[in-house]
Prior knowledge:
By secondary structure, this protein is mainly alpha-helical. It has 5 helices and no strands. α1 (3-28) runs antiparallel to α2, α1 runs antiparallel to α4 (93-125) and α4 packs antiparallel against α5 (128-161). The radius of gyration is 17 Å and the shape is elongated. The N and C termini lie far apart (53 Å).
Amino acid sequence: MNGVALTLRTLHHGEHTLERQLLNAAERHHAEHEIHHVATDLAHWSHEHGTLLADTAPAYGLDLSGPPDHPVYGLMTSLREKTADMLGRRPEPGLLLLHDLRDLYLAAAGNSLYWEMLAQAAQATKDTRLLELASSCHPQTLRQARWANTMIKNLSPQLLTGS
Length: 163
């Protein structure tokens, strides 16, 4: 598998993961209307990116149909939540929100780097298909990261100091 194919596969996984994290955060923080609605909207972008990646993948010898299987992620999340429930030490909702926003920011930033790498490879090889894909999806990924970062900046003072 060449570097472009590996990057497409990794980006497909990253977009699927970000979509799932956004939907989980939207559900977990449904009482925070801005978080709920914006995270749900942003998850649609990641879903679209995954679909576009899957549509593009066959030209590079890949089959990315369907969501990637990553049972370890789900297992670790479930284990962490069950352990916290059993120990009775669930984080405060505000701290959980900041943790979720941090994870969303990091996931979007990681995807942004892969979109940038894909765009650079496309420019170097004059691959217009890849360049159009990266050019259409990368700005939305940057917007996802900026939203999470802005929410962290706005909420941190109040949630961390309790004021």
